[in-house]
């Protein structure tokens, strides 16, 4: 079940990546619902994802706190 939630979270973040503010809001929601090991996976995915979208770099602060 948790793999499904993680994949769902990634798909939502990909869809809202056009708007950094919305992306950060969805990222905050994801942090509240994911398990600790899923958060590590999300951090790795996020680092790779923002390479192509530097405007989302500010959202890394949410994950690192």
Walkthrough of the structure:
The chain is mostly helical and 65 residues long. It is globular, with a radius of gyration of 11 Å. The N and C termini lie far apart (26 Å). The protein has four helices and no strands.
Helix content: over 70%
Overall shape: it is globular
Instruction: Tell me the total number of β-strands.
Output: 0
**Count of DSSP H/I helices:** 4
Tell me the fraction of residues in β-strands, as a range: under 5%
Mean pLDDT across residues: 90
- CA(first)-CA(last) distance: 26 Å
Structural class: mainly alpha
Rg is 11 Å
Major sheet size, sense and barrel closure: none
**Low-pLDDT regions:** none
Order of helices and strands: HHHH
Task: List the topology elements.
Elements: H1 2-15, H2 20-33, H3 36-49, H4 60-64
In short:
By secondary structure, the protein is an all-alpha fold. Helices cover 72% and strands 0% of the residues. The radius of gyration is 11 Å and the shape is globular.
Summarize this structure as a short list of keywords or feature phrases.
mainly alpha, globular, 4 helices, 65 residues
């Amino acid at each position: 079940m948790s793999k499904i939630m993680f994949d769902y979270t990634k798909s939502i973040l990909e869809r809202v990546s056009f708007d950094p503010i919305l992306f950060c809001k969805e990222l905050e929601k994801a942090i509240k619902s994911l398990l600790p090991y899923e958060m590590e996976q999300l951090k790795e995915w996020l680092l790779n994802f923002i390479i192509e979208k530097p405007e989302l770099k500010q959202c890394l602060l949410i994950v690192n706190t």
